[in-house]
Structure formats: structure tokens, C-alpha cells
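Dear Dr. L.,

I hope this message finds you well. Following up on our conversation about the binding site, I have prepared a predicted three-dimensional model of the protein together with iron/sulfur cluster. For your records, I am including the exact sequence and ligand specification that went into the calculation, followed by the C-alpha cells. Please feel free to forward this to your student if that is useful.
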Amino acid sequence: MRQYFRNIFDTVRTIAIGMGITLKYCFAKTVTVQYPDMAPVIQPRFRGFHWFEAEKCIACDQCAKACPVDCIYIEKSGPRKIDKATGVAVGGALTRYAIDYAKCMFCALCCEPCPTDCIHMGNNHDLSAYTRKDMIVEFTELAREGKQTPEPIWMQRDELPEWAARRKAEWMSRAAPAREHMLKALEPSDVGKKAEKEAAAT
Ligand code: SF4
Ligand code: SF4
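The resulting structure of the complex is given below.
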């Protein structure tokens, strides 16, 4: 009997707590952020579209294997490894590194096993697209343009709100020091060319 009344009490109490929270928000001031004219608030540990450093990627597939939805696609022309002298990857070309954001669930499980710490969750939250195919981001193509994270389509306009222009410039300047190495990652290095010749000769 005691348990019976206890259950009734708990039910009423939890409903009252829930309704209290609902009522609080019913009378709270509504806040509408006029995005993209106003900047969205991005928390420091926000998991947005990836930040990928092609120049450090050894195309080991660890990230793709860890991905629970198989949305990372990696292709290379030969084995790659980190050159200890420069800290960048050498060997075969990284011919494709792509992520299908129609499938990605932003779990960050791909970032954990990366042996060279070259794939991270970025701070871009916006990647609208017109087709499902456009949701596949080709990071190797971005690397060709000196970018390490995708931009929202609307950020390609000339006139941008001040916060967006600043963020775009931040992304470009963060990637700029690696630009030369990013381009090299897309072609086989001398080590990779030698290995390819040896493989062809055998
Ligand atoms: S964040 Fe998760 S779902 Fe997205 S690519 Fe990485 S492992 Fe896959
Ligand atoms: S991003 Fe990291 S884990 Fe994925 S293939 Fe490149 S080096 Fe390997």
C-alpha cells in the first residue's frame, strides 16, 4: 500500500517539475537569431563539419574503419607515411578524402584513432546543399583551394556580414601555412614515385 501511494506521489511530483519548466519557457522572452546576418553562438566543444589536414594524412583508413556509418571515402596511389624531418606525409598521392554529410552523425569517432591527428571536428555548422550528392565534401578538392573545412554556400558571396567575413578569413589564415604541403599531398612525393617505379618494374 505504501508503495502504491509513493508511486502516485512520484508521478504527480515529476509532472509538476516538467510542467514548471514548460511554464517557465512559455513566459520567457523569445530569442530569434537573424542568421546569417547575426553570428550564431558556437560553443568551444561544438562538433561541426570536419577540419582536415591533408598534408598529415597517411591514408591509413583508421578513421573510415571507426566510422559507424561508413561515410568516409579514402583513396591513395601508394603507401604514405610521416616524414619525421618535416612532420608531413610522403609517399603515394592522397587522391581522395571525402565525407558524405548526408550520412555523418557528427559523433567524432573518426577523430579518436587518427595516428597523425589530422582529422578534427570543426566549428562550421552550416552546409546547406541542393542535392544529396552535394552533401559529399571532397576534402582533397578543398585542399587544392587551400581550404581545410567546407564553407556554407552563401559564404561564397562577395558581400558578407562582418562576422562571416571574419570567420572565413580565420579559416583561410589557419590553413595558409600548410597550403604548399596540402598541394604536395595530392601528388606522389619523390619517395612515392620511386616506390611506384619499383612496383611497376617487378
Ligand atoms: S563524425 Fe562519426 S559519422 Fe561522421 S565521419 Fe566521423 S565517425 Fe563517421
Ligand atoms: S585522417 Fe587520420 S586516420 Fe584517417 S586516413 Fe588520414 S591519417 Fe588515417
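In brief: Residues 66-67, 69, 71-72, 99, 104-110 surround iron/sulfur cluster (ligand 1) (CB under 6 Å).

With kind regards,
A. P.
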